[in-house]
Design goal:
By secondary structure, the chain is an alpha/beta fold. It contains 24 helices and 16 strands. It binds adenosine-5'-triphosphate. Keywords: ATP-binding, Membrane, Nucleotide-binding, Transmembrane, Transmembrane helix.
Length: 774
């Protein structure tokens, strides 16, 4: 029926159908019932033609199929059915957590999720099937959290808490939820639903894991609260017999209600002793119906339902209750609430067209919910913020992750990555001096202008903490040590290294091949590690410059001649001697801040969603933006602390230099953390499992880090360029010569001005040398 007709006065005559159980009795005239929006509003819950499926439209898993349900105000409605028949799905549609594919739902006079309906919100108390509580909270904190969300004052919550602790036989209010037994946790969950004394209580299997005595007292309580007609309860349970205490029972199977009756009517209708038997009979009947089935349209199905229910109802003709049926309900009979409807109808004697219009009902609902114009409440924000901080505070792992990890990362970085490597072994072979007892004991030299044992003098200059010299008998053994990984490089001096070097200086460009060859320091490096290889190249080259300056100085020559004629002035940015650590540190700071924010947020929402905690919050009336806001605020505070710690460790403990404005450094780091947080929220929104979130975070982490390594590689090249300026020119005594690695030392004759010749074959610089006779 269209809404237009539903609003009107159309009254459907009901046609009796075939008897479900094959009993034919004489039937009284059926009363007619109007089916109007007003009628739907009068029920606590009214579901019409509900269809719901999971999965894609192409491969749907139908869970609700043309389901109709009516829950009158002031009643207990027991929703029974086999596992997987769709009870939880139906309840989650009623509380506004899921949407039907088609059909409509009215809850407390409004449609769930619409403005002013109060649902989700404090008009409903929802106990989901899963525990859906924060394990880190005590019972009291749990109650405070939900109480504040429902807009209650702390004193009010405390009062109610005492009642619920006694009523539900709960342990001390200070016990943590995670330390309670399964049954106790369920009772706390039940207490949360009862906390604010809602108009509509929706309980998904509240009595699981509860002992029979307490179960009875729970039912007594439900009966008690529904007595005055103001409160309504919908309860699902697998203990079918306990549902006898409900006013109405909905028997559900395969996404449909097979019957919706009061328990005693069901029992007498089917002549059964227990509700279980009734359920079995109805289920069998449904199966038989299906076997004989020919495909029917939805409207045919509805008609058939109505017919069946009328037949069901007809079994009860001996009773004084009137029989009623609505055109839409599909499963009605002599049930409690419908009797009520009929009474209203009968007492008026006509169909009341003057009942509240839909807009009036919404206003009423608005008055009830009391928060239609409020975009948030202090209580909700307080509850959400306290929840976020308390969860972190109580979780040692998270606290370590938040505050210890960033500091540890910075310390490890500064200790392990910042400086030059130390203790790199070099295998040295020096044939200028005799090898005894695994060393060259008599490698003596003079620090004056006497040119003896130049190899020893050079080795003395090669004395940095980066290198450890180990001596070998011959070049083969030294190279083998490098191959075995015992050393990073091998250095070899020929027997007449000093003579050849002096001759090379003296002969200059006339130097013969053999002299060039003999004056060479031969170096074989393990270049498999670029950083180490480059550093060794640099230090071996710098040692030669130092050695040559010393010799020139001792001989009274200008030592500056050894320096390459490229003058590096004060750098515009950075230091003259840049530290590898200074270069990488900004990247490390940003990476740490970004990924910690990402890691923390990407799983926060997932855990809450997975455990049903978010669902519970939505049903309690929390808006998504409130959850988001509380997380952003919490995360911001955490990020502030993390950024402070990281920067403090970097700049004040490890003396990293900051030439700019420290406030800007802090601000930029925070902004970087903010982008990590945003990305974390995106991940937590798209991932269902923490595992997937971690994978996605790492998927981003690797390219991010690769770019870092790219920067490091550029740093390495810079080092190499610097290192390549390793040519010296000198004026030795009255002789001029030029020298460069690899091609020997050239002698230019006497009385000449300094000449400069750069090794252009390898590196950057090429300067023409000038031969000037003086
Ligand atoms: N999120 C979901 N995605 C896909 N299928 C779902 C989802 N939730 C439930 N289902 C399926 O829908 C059907 C009905 O599930 P539902 O939880 O509503 O059953 P139920 O009657 O509450 O069962 P129980 O009594 O065991 O809790 C089941 O077949 C279930 O596998």
């Amino acid at each position: 029926m269209s809404e237009g007709s539903a609003m009107g006065e159309r009254v459907e005559p009901v046609v009796p159908g075939p008897d479900l159980v094959g009993v034919n009795v004489e039937r009284p005239p059926l009363t007619h019932q109007q089916s109007t929006v007003w009628n739907k509003r009068q029920q606590a819950v009214c579901v019409r033609h509900a269809f719901k499926h999971y999965g894609s439209n192409k491969k749907p898993n139908h869970v609700l199929s043309n389901l109709n349900m009516t829950v009158a105000k002031g009643t207990i409605y027991g929703l029974l059915g086999a596992s997987g028949c769709g009870k939880t799905t139906l309840l989650s549609c009623i509380v506004g957590r899921r949407r039907l594919n088609t059909g409509e739902i009215w809850v407390l006079g409004g449609k769930p999720g619409t403005k002013g309906s109060g649902v989700p919100g404090k008009r409903v108390g929802y106990m989901p099937q899963e525990i859906a509580l924060y394990g880190e909270f005590s019972i009291k904190e749990t109650m405070m959290y939900f109480g504040w969300i429902f807009g209650m004052e702390s004193s009010e919550i405390n009062e109610r808490l005492q009642f619920l602790l006694n009523f539900l036989d709960l342990p001390s209010q200070n016990r943590l939820v995670k330390n309670l037994s399964g049954g106790q946790q369920r009772r706390v969950s039940f207490a949360v639903a009862l906390m604010h004394d809602p108009e509509l209580l929706i309980l998904d299997e509240p009595t699981v894991g509860v002992d029979p005595l307490l179960r009875q007292s729970i039912w007594n309580h439900l009966v008690q609260i529904t007595k005055d007609g103001n409160k309504t309860v919908i309860i699902t349970t697998h203990y079918i017999e306990e549902a006898r205490q409900a006013h109405t029972i909905g028997l559900m199977r395969s996404g449909k209600l097979l019957a919706e009756e009061s328990p005693h009517v069901l029992l007498s209708m089917y002549g059964c002793q227990s509700l279980e038997e009734v359920f079995l009979k109805l289920s069998r009947k449904q199966v038989q119906g299906k076997e004989n089935d020919v495909p029917v349209t939805v409207s045919q199905q509805t008609e058939q339902n109505i017919a069946n229910n009328i037949s069901l109802a007809s079994l009860n003709w001996g009773k004084k209750d009137s029989i009623s049926v609505t055109e839409e309900s599909g499963v009605v009979g002599l049930n409690f609430h419908q009797s009520k409807e009929v009474l209203v109808h009968d007492s008026n004697g006509h169909l009341d067209k003057g009942k509240p219009s839909s807009s009036r009902s919404i206003t009423d609902a608005c008055d009830d919910c009391g928060s239609c114009t409020e975009w948030t409440t202090r209580g909700k924000i307080r509850a959400l913020l306290q929840k976020n901080f308390l969860r972190m505070w109580r979780n040692v792992g998270v606290m370590l992750f938040i505050f210890a990890l960033p500091v540890m990362q910075v310390i490890l970085f500064c200790l392990a990555i910042g400086g030059d490597p130390k203790g790199l072994k070099l295998a040295i072979v020096n044939h200028e001096v005799p090898y005894t007892n695994q060393t060259y004991q008599h490698c003596d030299f003079f620090r004056n202008c006497s040119l003896t044992h130049m190899s020893c003098r050079y080795l003395d200059a090669l004395n940095t903490s980066t290198m450890v010299k180990e001596y070998y008998r011959d070049p083969m053994m030294a190279k083998e040590a490098v191959r075995r990984g015992d050393a990073w490089g091998a250095l070899y001096f020929t027997e007449n290294f000093t003579d050849a070097l002096v001759a090379r200086m003296a002969l200059g460009k006339d130097t013969d091949e053999e002299t060039l060859d003999q004056s060479e320091i031969r170096v074989w490096l393990d270049m498999s590690n670029q950083q180490i290889g480059v550093i060794l190249q640099r230090d071996i080259g710098l040692a030669f410059q130092a050695f040559f300056k010393e010799v020139l100085g001792a001989c009274g020559s200008n030592v500056d001649i050894v320096d390459p004629p490229v003058s590096f002035k004060d750098p515009i940015y950075g230091n003259e001697k840049p530290y590898f650590r200074d270069f990488v540190a900004p990247g490390i700071i940003l990476t740490v801040v970004f990924f910690l924010a990402l890691a923390l947020t990407s799983s926060a929402l997932i855990t809450e969603r997975h455990d049903g905690l978010l669902d519970r919050a939505w049903v309690a009336g929390v808006y998504p933006w409130e959850v988001l806001f509380s997380h952003v605020l919490t995360q911001f505070v955490v990020m502030f602390g993390q950024t402070f710690l990281v920067l403090f460790a970097m700049f004040y403990v490890f003396d990293l230099e900051c030439k700019g404005n420290m406030f800007l450094v802090f601000l930029l780091s925070m902004l970087n953390g903010l982008s990590g947080m945003c990305f974390g929220f995106v991940i937590s929104a798209v991932c269902d499992l923490e595992r997937n979130a971690i994978q996605l975070s790492f998927g981003q982490f690797l390219p991010h880090f690769a770019s870092q390594w790219n920067s490091l590689a550029s740093g390495g090249n810079a080092l190499s360029s610097h290192q390549s300026i390793r040519v010296a020119a000198l004026n030795y005594g009255h002789k001029c010569f030029e020298m460069h690695f690899g091609e020997g030392l050239g002698y230019y004759g006497t009385n000449c001005l300094p000449r400069i010749y750069f090794d252009c074959s390898l590196d950057l610089y090429f300067l023409e040398y000038q031969y000037v006779n003086t």
